[in-house]
Amino acid sequence: MSSTSVKASSRPSPTKDMRIWLRKWGTLIGLILLLIVFSILRPEVFPSWRNVRNIVEQVSILAIISSMVTLVMVTGDFDLSVGTLASLCGVVAADLMVRGFGILPSLLVALLVGALGGLLNGILIAYGGISAFVATLATMTAFGGAALLYTDGATIFSGLPEGFRFLGQASIGPIPVPVVIMVLVVFFAWLILEHTTLGRRLYAIGGNRQASYLAGIDVRRLRMISFVFSGLGASIAGIVLTSRLFSAHPQAGNPFMLNAAAAVFLGATSFREGEPHVLGTLLGVLIMGVLGNGLNILGVNSYIQSILTGVIIVLAVLSSALAQRGQEG
Prior knowledge:
Distance between the termini: 25 Å
Shape: globular
Order of helices and strands: HHHHHHHEEHHHHHHH
Strand order of the largest sheet: 1-2
Helix content: over 70%
Largest sheet: 2 strands, antiparallel
Number of helices: 14
Strand content: under 5%
Low-confidence stretches: 5-9
Radius of gyration: 21 Å
Structural class: mainly alpha
Number of strands: 2
């Protein structure tokens, strides 16, 4: 057989090229299609600057949680507790402010609670040997119970200082403060994963935990650190959510857990094949936000929206698994 025929036989077929291209860009194409469809269905509302600003502001809290959860999922772990931890941190911050501890001290305590919650997850998983799913399922329940116990199931909606509104309701020029916080957190997570030794080691752990250990990486310590980052992300999101609502409900942050997972899995299928990364996660967040906003504008029943969210999660996980299988094959 000639060298020409060998080269021809080793060249990927057009069908395979198309599959690779769709795996890489399919999520972005999906977002663009959603934008086009909703713009056609409601041209007087959906593409307006006011609605675009509203979408970005709405997804800011989800983006904060999801970008920090990405650091955990890069290592091959999972964090189910971020939603209830965000709720707990929100009620802690609100309660302390109502008691007169001041805005800054209250926020620092809430951030500490988030970091300690992440640290607990990291210790249970990295050093205790408990699977991430089981450990964070347990702490998810515990954090949720703690938030309800802390407030006796009530919502804190009076006595909050007016200055606390800034984090969730103010704007810097035309840009809402929650969006500014989102950009800072997303940039921080992206910087860690893409431009630090810590990020490279987290990716290495996710690629092959045993090989990373043999290469001298302290796998347990870095897995624990990734959960601390996730806990901090949850606490920041809980604080911003509480400020935006100007009240603290002990279950306010609970829905973010599933949406954060969906965003990370959706993002894992874009640009890179089956590998979580922050920019992909942000794209997944935008898809969730655009879909929810568009369906609300069209007046779609909230129960149907929940069903669609579940379908998206299944498709996202399936797409990520197929992408990884294609990469291995």
